[in-house]
Each structure stands twice: as C-alpha cells, then as structure tokens.
Amino acid sequence: MKGKIVIVDYYVGNTNSVYNAVKRLGYNVIISNKRNEIEESDALIMPGVGAFAEAINNINQLDLKPILNDQVLNKKKPVLGICIGMQLMADFSEENGHFEGLGWIPGSVKKIPPQEALLVPHVGWNEITPVFCKEILFSNAVFENPSFYWDHSYYFDCKDEYKAATVEYGSTLSAIIAQENIFGVQFHPEKSQTNGLRLFRSFFNYFNIV
C-alpha cells in the first residue's frame, strides 16, 4: 500500500469521487477531519463542489484552519486543492458576498467575466496550457491533449507567478495555481478519466509519496 493521503472532510465536495480515483492508484487514502489523521498524513487533498461560503464556514466551525495552516504553511505538507478546494486557498472570495479564505496563495475568487455567447458556469471538457511545474503535475506522461473536466462559475484571480497553467474561456483564466508545496486545480481530475489519474500520480510521485 502506498503513502497515506487524507481528503479533508469539511462536508462539501464530491469526496467519494476523489477517494475512488486516488484509491484506484493504490494509495492509502481516507476521508477525515480528525486532527491526528491530518497530522499523520503524507499529503492532503482539499476537495470541492459547492459554495465558497459554506466551505469556509464549515472549516471554521470544525476548527480546521489552525491545523491546516500548521501542516501546510509550517510543516510544508503537500496539498492539492480541487475546484472549491483550490479557491479556498485565496485571500477572499466575491461569491455571493465577501468571504475570507485561507490566504495560502495571494489572490481572490471572482466571477467568470460575462461575454456574449459564453455560458456560465463553464461546464464540460476544456484544454489547459501548462506554464510551469510541468515536471510536477505532468511527470509521468506527455499530454498530447491536456483536456480536463470543468464545472465552475468563479475563478482564482492571481499574479502570473502563481499560475502553473491557464485555460481559455472567453479570457485567459487560471487553471492551476502553485507555490512550493501548495497546488490547486480549478478543474476536476477525479472526473477527467486517464488524464486526471495521471495528474494525481504525478503530484504524489513528485513529493515522493510512494
């Protein structure tokens, strides 16, 4: 059995789909919000489906923020955020108000700019353009068609130095953000078939979680 992965449970998100994808790769993965299990993990996944406000409120009510900050910011534990899990890493979100995030990567969560004939939410398959960190997220295969599944109305607005990949949807939006041990993907690798599994494996391999 491979390294221990904890999918952080803050009662939103498609945790079971993420669990099944990572389990398929042979990792010892659990869904938990218990302090000792988070501390004993080799890496964390922040899942995401739902509203930013509900997710951050649940994190605060569960008193997870101090634990997560310690593990991610102080202990430098690898963490992968998915969709809302990525957006939670921002300073704040403008979704249905103003809500403070975890503040792990400087930036804010904003509505996808409306444009004529552009459907929001952005749902379906779309290709990304890697900018940097190719050796981390794409180390086990060269993608001829780096397409992933999306379902979002808001995006992570940040400086270019944090954008590991972008996506074109009316304008150029951040698809992957990264800084040291902190990574976030706006799309859903757990719904992206082979490419999604490759991305999970590349991330874990890079951090020597074997």
UniProtKB/TrEMBL annotation:
The keyword rRNA-binding does not apply. Residues 6-203 form the Glutamine amidotransferase domain. It catalyses: 5-[(5-phospho-1-deoxy-D-ribulos-1-ylimino)methylamino]-1-(5-phospho-beta-D-ribosyl)imidazole-4-carboxamide + L-glutamine = D-erythro-1-(imidazol-4-yl)glycerol 3-phosphate + 5-amino-1-(5-phospho-beta-D-ribosyl)imidazole-4-carboxamide + L-glutamate + H(+); L-glutamine + H2O = L-glutamate + NH4(+). Keywords: Amino-acid biosynthesis, Cytoplasm, Glutamine amidotransferase, Histidine biosynthesis, Hydrolase, Lyase, Transferase. Pfam families: GATase. Heterodimer of HisH and HisF. This is Imidazole glycerol phosphate synthase subunit HisH. It comes from Sediminibacterium goheungense.
